[in-house]
Amino acid sequence: MTSNKHIAMWFCPRSRSTVIARAFGQLDECVVYDEPFYGAYLAIKGQDNYLPQKPEELSKYSELDYKKVINKITGKLPDGASFSFQKHNTKHALPEFGRDWIKQLKNFFLIRNPQETIYSYWQANYCQGNLKIDKVGWLQHFKLFEEVQQLTGETPLVIDSNELVKAPRKYLQFLCTKLGVNYSEKMLDWKPADNSLTWVQGSPYEHWYTNALNSTKFTYEEKKLDFPNELMPLLDECMPYYQKIFQHRLVIN
Fold first, then answer.
1. Which of the four pLDDT bands, split at 50, 70 and 90, describes residue 99?
2. Does a structural domain hold residue 72?
3. SUPFAM superfamilies, from UniProt (predicted)?
4. Cβ of 144: how many Cβ atoms within 10 Å?
5. Which helix (H) or strand (E) is 108 found in, with range?
6. What is the pairing mode between strands 30-34 and 106-111?
């Protein structure tokens, strides 16, 4: 493997990003950086309305200085690691952080139908009052997709999480090949609540990840959503951004 390799997975909330990070975390030479910009995002945006702590209290779990975060995610790897797998909530990558550093990463974008991500976000009650597009992240996701396309001169790889969880071996094998890392069957199952996402466990935010932390493998269950009428305008607002990225998704027959 090439040393000092950094892989970045960009996602909107509730896109199954954590279980994918857990799969990569099973690889012996991988270090997982889980939402490393979270603290820096809060340090600029201030306390979010669903967070139990102020940004300065979050410093126990997440770095508040975005420059230090950038140095970490583009710099030297820890001993024993040949690459990092970075799980980035797109809305945390504020314009204030710049964009040139993204060129040092191997980027791909994770998507999931907004009807599912919005419903999951709403059902988990991660907000108070009306749910807006800036919370669910689709506008930021599309804007960054375009920016990465312009920065790198190529269309980023796009993975639909619904398709991946239906055929995880096939998609992970192809994804690893595209990313330049060695696939292992160990990516298909793991122990519940292991230490691959260490910053989450013991933090005030652990309850957001309960299902992913307690999971042992990829699962898919077809569900008919009782989608609230009050969220239809938000869905209509998000769908065009999703569809524009969706057309570039990886399809494996």
1. very high
2. yes
3. P-loop containing nucleoside triphosphate hydrolases
4. 23
5. strand 106-111
6. unpaired
* Closest-CA residue to 151 (of 87, 107, 116, 181): 107
Residue 1 clears pLDDT 50, i.e. is over it: no
Here the tokens at position 130 are 């009306």
User: Do 109 and 141 touch, CB atoms closer than 8 A?
Assistant: yes
Q: Is 226 exposed, middle or buried (0-12, 13-18, 19+ CB in 10 A)?
A: exposed
Total domains, the chain: 1
* Percent of the chain whose pLDDT exceeds 70: 83
In a domain, 207, yes or no: yes
Task: Determine the residue type at 149.
Answer: Q
Crossing angle of helices 114-123 and 232-246, in 10° steps, is 140
Radius of gyration over alpha carbons of the chain, in Å?
A: 17
Distance CA 68, CA 59 (A): 13
**Distance (Å, whole) CA 66 – CA 54:** 17
Model pLDDT for residues 227-242, shown as the tens digit of each residue: 999 999 999 999 999 9
**What's the CA gap between 32 and 63, in Å, rounded?**
15
pLDDT tens digit sequence for 41-69: 988 887 654 454 565 667 777 899 999 99
Rounded to whole angstroms, how far apart are CA atoms 175 and 35?
A: 20
Tell me which residue range forms the domain holding 42: 5-246
Please state the pTM of the whole predicted model. Answer: 0.90
Q: Which CATH number is 203's domain given?
A: 3.40.50
Q: How far is CA 96 from the centre of its chain?
A: 20
pLDDT of residue 49: 47
C-alpha to C-alpha distances, 22 to 19, 32, 35, 57, 192, nearest whole angstrom: 5, 8, 13, 26, 10
- Is 252 contained in some domain? no
CB atoms within 10 A of CB 141: 26
